[in-house]
Write a structure and sequence with these properties.
Two copies of one chain form a homodimer. Chain A is an alpha/beta fold. Chain A is built from 16 helices and 27 strands.
Chain lengths: 512, 512
């Protein structure tokens, strides 16, 4: 298997009549999906897509999302799945950055797509996935597929060439286009399936967005590599997830911690039948220990798998089922076939117990940032991807993520890891969410400031939380400023956008 | 991970103090084994081994067998593990065929090695693994290692280059040197670990010979890929295997069917504690259904995994734990990442229910036969490895091996698959082993002849077995000739050498 498109092709041979993709009441067998992918590939070729081109996808998760992705990569072009939560400005930036000429447009995004075509010079062809009256001047996908051959396009694919460009969620600066090769995706799928112990007979619930590396490359491709089936939702609604687990016979579920927390808090949980579940993965954001404890108490026989990775590195480390008990609190250990180094500012590996930046070396990491050799060279040095994540490493090479290197607060010569402060505040019963950032301070350089989202009907004020911190944190780590808010700005994958908080704080400071 | 040597290197990083290799009372941690491999690589370089060279290994399974293998491939040379059961003539053929200049010689093989050096012109350097007085004029390994640096040799390895040459057991014609690349071994290890559901925490019992692809590439490398530990025996003694399972905490065991049968028949079985076992693999030869039934009845909670592959294809298909119940009797289904076609003599895929030759396409198959482009071109056509194995394929793409294409008997225009006849005879209580071959016949072209090994104290004669077959086989399939023997000529991996039986029969016919 050399190309991403082979993952679906081989499933169509091995499991032709299996409903590999399900969405709502609809389903596609692997054979049907494979034919759709061939038709999409041939149709895209006919409207001018050539090997090496970029084809964007702007749509919610849907039944044909992955078949159309496979169709795109079978042309030899790179798929650029776009975050539909982004603003028109952000989308325009990405389309221009990747020099996208063709975009597949899901229902509801027609107006945005037409606005983007006005603004983005390179964008020419729009294909309306839904068709119908809103399609307007766009090419209807249905007609494109119907007119195309169902046979494999037969395009030779170089496994080292780019298959997909994921734009990073942009917690800092402009989004960057991470290029993963065909080989990256295929090898990463096998390695992920191995550590997550996926089986051909599994059925995965996919509520994470498919435009994201976590949803597409990590969760979907690892299951599809083995021929397991996917049940796809277009939003992470905890009630629907609970119903789907029982109704669709879900065996594996990947949830970001906030989704799993919402499931735990949902009124339907008490009557839900979760008996089909075999394993629960979580990752993409820190898991509050109390949430994990509640999940484990409720589902003691499940395999729990914590994942760690970045779009740039793909899945890099994991904490497997048994390790949840032998190494509680750790993020995980490097996957087989993956090398991790935790290094200090001089690039020397830190001793066990020390904190440093995680560097990753593997075959299935990114090729680089699309059209950005300078940023690529800054991130991949001597073959090592510099993640910007800080971790503590122990004597058994388990890593525990401490924080983003860029989020670290330097206060009076001391390092403060905001995550440590946040973890303390999250344990307070009145706190639903919290983000701690460093803000300028004349005396200390920087001091911590906490943005707190209180729980409904809870009495949280600065005095109460200051007292809470006083018992639990060294003086220099305690927040000096407090802001109580209704919500925090989040990325599509559940990370707090701290750069935006810092920007808000900076502007507020200037206004004062 | 690009090179085979990285498998051990990464384990030394991840699990430095884990006893990755155990043999008798001895053990090596991954860190110790990694250092030994570095010393072996540097030592071999110093005595003239260069990238691309071939370095043979003639030894029983032993503690340092795999560390020395890793050391060899870290030089960039190819390892040629030799079947120690072969005759001097056969070994001389292989050494000359692979143009081996350097050979590692295990204890007990010193005299053979010196005789080989006399005969084989290219063979120059002999390294005595055991050292001691028998080493004679050979270089003692201990001294070579002691004088060498423990640091990684730093040789750049092309992942597409050959890492190992396995000589096929030669059921037909001269042995052929199957070259597997670094990438073949590494990718195959990941794929095998996935379908065999190996975990880092596993401990494997290795009683199959390490000179064979099954023992080295399939069983050992798949476990080592994940950092699982190996307990190595130098023979497949059923009593010792039973003791080791309890004593060493074995969780996974690969046995060829004859070994598993011997374990079932062993008097120590009734008192053996097999509670640590988690999975049992079998393969390399057909598994008699009665043996499998007894194993499953005795160990109902185990994961049973049947494997199918050839040295040329590496592990190609398997029958996983659940499938033993849903598809009893089948050999298995193609692994993820592997493509199988079952084709007729014109190369067309046969319909479900039909029989044809198995063709295999995958990234991790052989590069080719060493120094034999003609045979390579006959075997790999359009990227498909022609296995010479005949199989029936069902509507779910499960294959059931029917027989070797070369062993098929053509009798009066009908195809007879000897294995079908053998399976019927094996069910007779007086039959311990049986092999059926085609022998020339004036009227029918060929007719079946059975070589029967009777059970101790059992009364087996031709009349009894003819009556048995009459109830169970069509007339044309029944053996016309019978030979009752004490044993059958076997290959190192438990296959009957039918070419030798045919040769014996031919010579006997000429003598008559």
């Amino acid at each position: 298997m050399r190309a991403v498109g082979d993952i679906l092709r081989l499933n169509a041979r091995r499991f032709p009549r299996k409903p590999g993709f399900r969405f709502g009441a609809g389903s596609l067998t692997f054979e049907q999906a494979d034919e759709m992918a061939n038709r999409a590939a041939n149709g895209l070729r006919r409207i001018g897509v050539n090997p090496g081109d970029r084809v964007a996808m702007l749509a919610l998760n849907r039944l044909d999302y992955l078949p159309l992705f496979f169709g795109t990569v079978r042309t030899g072009a790179m798929s650029v799945p776009l975050n539909f939560r982004c603003s028109v400005d952000e989308l325009a930036y990405m389309l221009d950055d990747a020099q996208v000429a063709t975009m597949l447009v899901g229902p509801g995004f027609e107006a945005v797509a037409l606005a983007l075509r006005e603004r983005v010079r390179c964008l020419e062809a729009l294909v309306a996935i839904g068709g119908g009256p809103d399609a307007g001047p766009m090419t209807p996908l249905d007609a494109l597929l119907a007119a195309a051959s169902p046979e494999a396009p037969g395009t030779a694919i170089d496994e080292a060439s780019g298959a997909v460009i994921f734009y990073t969620s942009g917690t800092t600066g402009h989004p960057k286009g991470v290029v993963l090769s065909h080989r990256s995706i295929v090898e990463g799928a096998c390695q992920t399936a191995l550590v997550a112990r996926i089986r051909s007979s599994d059925t995965a619930l996919v509520t994470v967005p498919l435009f994201h590396g976590g949803g597409l490359a990590v969760v979907s491709m690892s299951h599809l590599y083995l021929g397991a089936g996917l049940v796809i939702h277009d939003k992470a609604d905890p009630g629907e997830a609970l119903r789907s687990i029982a109704g669709d016979g879900i065996t594996t579920y990947f949830g970001v911690p906030s989704q799993l927390f919402a499931m735990l808090e949902h009124p339907d949980l008490k009557d839900a039948d979760l008996g089909s579940l075999r394993s629960l993965w979580y990752g993409a954001a820190p898991m509050p220990p109390v949430v994990l404890q509640r999940l484990q108490a409720m589902l003691p026989r499940l395999d729990f798998v914590q994942t760690y990775g970045q779009t740039e590195t793909t899945l890099t480390a994991c904490l497997g089922p048994e390790e949840h008990f032998s190494k509680p609190g750790a993020t995980g250990r490097e996957l087989p076939g993956v090398e991790i180094r935790v290094v200090d500012d001089e690039g020397r590996e830190v001793s066990p117990g020390g904190v440093g930046e995680i560097l990753v070396r593997r075959e299935s990491g990114m090729i680089g940032y699309y059209g950005n050799p300078q940023q690529t060279a800054e991130t991949i040095r001597d073959g090592w991807i510099h993640t910007g994540d800080l971790a503590r490493i122990d004597e058994d090479r388990y890593i525990t993520i401490v924080d983003r290197k860029k989020d670290m607060i330097l206060s009076g010569g001391e390092n403060i890891y905001p995550k440590e402060v946040e973890d303390v505040l999250l344990q307070h019963p009145a706190v639903a969410q919290v983000a701690v950032i460093g803000v300028p301070d004349e005396r200390w350089g920087e001091v911590p400031k906490a943005y707190v989202v209180p729980r409904p009907a809870a009495a949280a004020d600065a005095a109460v939380l200051e007292a809470w911190c006083m018992e639990r944190l060294a003086r220099y780590k305690r927040p000096r400023h407090w802001s109580f808010v209704q919500g925090l700005p989040m990325t599509a994958t559940g990370k707090v956008r701290k750069n935006l908080l810092r920007e808000i704080d900076r502007q507020a400071g200037e206004a004062r």
